[in-house]
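Subject: AraC family transcriptional regulator

B.,
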Amino acid sequence: MMWVESLQKAIDYMEVHLLDDISIGRIAEQANVSVFHFQRLFAVLTDMSVGEYLRRRRLTLAADELSRSNARIIDLALKYGYDTPEAFSKAFRRQHGMSPSEARRHSGKLTSYNRLVIQVNLKGVEPMQYRVVERERFQIAGIKRTFSLVNEKNLAEIPKMWDAVNGDGTDELLFSLNNGPITGVLGVCIDKSSEAIDYWIATAHDGDEPDGLSTLTIPASKWAVFEVHGPMPDAMQTVWKHIFSEWFPSSGYKHAGTPELEVYTDEDPSSPDLYSEIWIPVK
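Prediction pasted inline below.
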C-alpha cells in the first residue's frame, strides 16, 4: 500500500501548491517515482492527466472566488495561472459553460471538481487472468522515438507514432521479424531523464540488427503477464486500472523497475475478441 500513500502525498502537494508554477518533476518526487510512471499511474487511476487535474482544480477555485468576491477578472486570471483575461475566459467557459462575467451574475450552474482522494479495492470485482513467468534477457528490434514529458507531450505524441507505424507498413515488417520469446509487436517505454522518455515500437528478434531499425536488450526478469480481452484502447486501459488499483495492493509483488511491455497481435484492433497482453517486471 506504500505506493498509494506516495501517490496521495503527491496529490496533497499539488493541492498545497495549486497557485504556484509547479513542475511535473517536483510533483513526481513526492511519490518517489519517475515522471513518466507518475504521469501514467495518475492517468490510469483518475482518467485524466496531471495537467488536466491542475486546470480543473484551479478553475474550480477561480469560480468560487469569482462568485463571492469583487476581485477583477484580470487579477483572477493572473492568480490562477493565465497570462491574459482572454485565455482565462476561454478556459473558464470550457469547464463551466459560461463566461466569468456570467458566473459573477450567478446566471448558471458551475462545474466543480473536488480534491482527489485515492482509494483502492483489495478485492477485485472481476477475476484477473495472469501468469508469472521468468525470461532470460532478450533482444528487441524496432523504431525508437524520444518524447518530452514537459506539459505531458508524450501522451499526445505516442498515439501519433502508432498511427504512423500502422499506416506505413512498419507494423507488418515487425511481425515478419518476430522470432524471439514473445509473440507480437511491443510497446516499450524507457525512462530517459526527468524530462524525456524513449518509446519503442518493436518486436522480439533474435539476430542481427535489421536494416533501418534499432535494437535494445530487455534484461532478464520475472514477469507478471496479464491477459487483455477486447478492443483497443479501452480494454488495455481497463486492465491497467485493475492492475494498479486492485492487483498490486493485494498481490504482495512490487514493480522491479525495468521496462514494461504491452504486447499486440496482428488481429483487428477494434475486434471485441482481440487478445493482447501486459508484461510487468516484478519482484
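The first strand starts at residue 130 and ends at 135.

T.
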